[in-house]
Each structure stands twice: as C-alpha cells, then as structure tokens.
Amino acid sequence: MTIRDAFIWATLLDEHPLPAGCPVRPESWRGWWFLATAAQQEALQNAAVPLLAERWADAMEAALEDADQRPRVEDVASATLVPILRFGVDIRLTAFHYGGMIALLAAAWVHGDQLQAWFHHQLHAGRHIGVVD
To answer: Rounded to the nearest 5°, which phi and psi values hold at 112?
Structure first.
C-alpha cells in the first residue's frame, strides 16, 4: 500500500491491536472468533478495520498495475473488495466498519481521495458497501 501519511497510518495500527491470542492472518480469524469472548470479538472487529483496509488497498494497487488500460480506483474498487468482504462476514463486520475502512484509506492512502469519491457515488446510487444480502 502506498501511504500518503505514514504517521496517520502507524497511529491507526497502534490504536487497534489484535486481541491477545488472535491469529494475525485473516484466514484464521473465523475459528478464533467462535471461541473468543464478546470483548475479544469487539477488539478483533476494531483491529480488522485497518488490517483489511490495507489488504484492500494492496489489491486495488495490484489491479491498477496489472491492467492493460489506465484504470481508475473506481474501476477496481468493487471487484477487489469482494475477497475482503469474506473476512468481514466471518467476524460480523457491519457497514459502519466498511465506512471506517474508507475513512482510514481516505486519510492515509495515496489514492484515498479517489476511493472516497467512489464510495460517495455508491451511496448516492443507493448501493451499500459491506452489506451482504
């Protein structure tokens, strides 16, 4: 992830550590989630926001680099969010958490302004990011 403001990003990560005993890899969160206390689950949800935001930003950057044409963030945001949603569903992230991901990336990521514009367009179009039917 190409960071626009390293201080903001480091602060966000420091303020939301993974709970004790929680695996670092999102692929392992689901099994841990069901054995965790309510407080540990909430701590994981809070820690997951910047971690998953970073994964999403990495996926968008890779998609932007791999494309033959000159895609924009709005061209790759939805498709790259789909794998991230799977981890969020496992730990019951809500639309609020996904809004937090957008806000974090808007503040710290080099393409954050474009992502925020895409998100606002999605909302005005009546689409809800992070809501699974």
So the answer is: -60, -40
The number of angstroms, rounded, from the C-alpha of 99 to the middle of its chain's C-alpha atoms is 9
- The string of pLDDT tens digits covering residues 83-99 is 998 888 899 998 899 89
Q: How many whole angstroms separate alpha carbon 91 and alpha carbon 22?
A: 12
What does pTM read for this prediction?
0.87
pLDDT in tens, 21-50: 999 999 999 999 999 999 999 999 999 999
Phi-psi region of 93 (alpha: psi -120 to 50; beta: other; left: phi over 0): beta
- Dmax over CA atoms of the chain, in Å, equals 48
Task: Mark 82-115 as b/e (b = at least 16 C-beta within 10 Å).
Answer: eebbebbebbebeeebbebbbbbbbebbebbebb
User: Which residue from 87, 115, 90, 89 is spatially nearest to 101, judged by alpha carbons?
Assistant: 115
Which DSSP string corresponds to 118-129?
A: HHHHHHHTT--T
| Domain residue spans of the chain | 6-124
